[in-house]
From TrEMBL:
CDD domains: TM_PBP2
Name of one Pfam family that matches: BPD_transp_1
Residue ranges of domain ABC transmembrane type-1 in the record: 93-310
Localization of this protein: Cell membrane
Species assigned in the record: Lentzea rhizosphaerae
Family: Belongs to the binding-protein-dependent transport system permease family.
Lineage of origin: Bacteria, Bacillati, Actinomycetota, Actinomycetes, Pseudonocardiales
Topology class, membrane: Multi-pass membrane protein
Gene3D superfamilies from the UniProt entry: MetI-like (1.10.3720.10)
Keyword annotations of the record: Cell membrane, Membrane, Transmembrane, Transmembrane helix, Transport
Biased composition (Polar residues): 1-11
InterPro entries referenced in this protein's UniProt entry, alphabetically: ABC_transporter_permease, MetI-like, MetI-like_sf
Region of interest called Disordered, as start-end residue ranges on this chain: 1-33
The name this protein goes by in its record: Carbohydrate ABC transporter permease
């Protein structure tokens, strides 16, 4: 850079001006990095303690108890594979596992299907956040409250739903008192409770699909159903797999709505696996065998989850 200066003799003198050197940045030294490390460990310590106390230790303790005979008042006695042998020959366990599988299939198929249709309709209509917030309200209600309210509404004598059914068919429906209706009714309650949350997740996935893809489909003459089948479903594969896995895990661990509404009846028709585990642990105080069934349920969920991820290629969509 050059500046022009005029002296008293009217002569122009050009003087070069040098730019100031840029400020030097000090690189953090070993002491600074050590301080950052201590701060990082300090911040993650509460999470590590919570994970160890509330997850790792109970899980390891449960695995140990699954190989013991433990009845609370006496110390656990190691029995090896005796609980597993009893589990294999326990007909009530296999019955509860079948009821759980039936409940899971109904809840996942109906829940994901209804949520998908609802999310697509909302996406086409372009609703605001208020409507989506109202849809998620049933998910925020506890399972106990949900079961109590629907038990009153489906009561064969005083329930408003059965009042309408009686007005049409002249006889009520035993939703919770019939072996054929108990599990489908519980699945419907579970679908009603989780449908809004699933629809919001799928709606978020729909918003990630570029509008130009649908415009190209319309130019090619594709109908709405063809675009839904050939464009929307393949592009939603990662979201749908996540929703299915979440619903499978949630439905497999169902307990509150069954405990409040049917208590596993009538005649064990709605005895899901969690109810049987609860009965063994807190009804018969056989915590060792209950821990064995819990471990079996955990391994089953792990196997189902990894199978779904493997078969559906959850990490990629058809755009990859």
């Amino acid at each position: 850079m050059v500046t022009t200066v005029q002296d008293s003799s009217a002569q122009v003198v050009r003087r070069p001006v040098t730019a100031a050197p840029p400020p030097t940045r000090r690189r953090p030294g070993p002491a600074s990095r050590r301080n950052d490390t201590w701060v990082a460990w300090l911040l993650v310590t509460p999470a590590i303690l919570g994970f160890g106390v509330f997850f790792a230790y109970p899980m390891l303790r449960g695995v140990y108890l699954s190989f013991t005979e433990f009845h609370i008042l006496t110390p656990p006695v190691f029995t090896g594979l005796a609980n597993i042998q009893e589990l294999v020959g326990d007909g009530r366990f296999w019955h509860s596992l079948g009821v759980t599988a039936y409940f899971v299939v109904l809840s996942v198929v109906l829940g994901v299907g209804v949520s998908l249709v609802t999310a697509v309709v909302l996406h086409r209509l372009g609703v605001n956040t208020t409507v989506r917030g109202l849809m998620i309200l049933p998910f925020l209600i506890s399972g106990v409250v949900t079961a109590l309210v629907w038990t009153w509404m489906l009561d064969p004598q005083l329930g408003i739903v059965n009042q309408l059914i009686t007005w049409v068919t002249d006889e009520p429906v035993m939703f919770f008192g019939s072996g054929g209706w108990a599990v489908p009714t519980l699945a419907a309650l579970n679908v009603w409770k989780s449908m809004g949350y699933n629809a919001v997740l799928i709606f978020a996935g729909l918003q990630t699909i570029p509008a130009s893809i649908y415009e190209a489909g319309r130019i090619d003459g594709a109908s709405e159903w063809q675009m839904f089948r050939s464009l929307t479903l393949p592009l939603l594969r990662p979201i749908l797999v996540m929703v299915v896995i979440l619903n499978v895990i949630s439905a497999t661990q169902v307990f509150d709505i069954v405990q409040v509404s049917t208590k596993g009846g009538p005649a064990d028709a709605s005895l899901v696996l969690q109810m049987y585990i609860y009965d063994k642990a807190f009804g018969q105080f056989d915590f060792g065998y209950a821990a064995t069934m819990s471990l079996a349920l955990f391994l089953l969920l792990v196997a189902v989850t990894f199978t779904q991820l493997r078969m559906a290629r959850a990490g990629e969509s058809d755009t990859n």
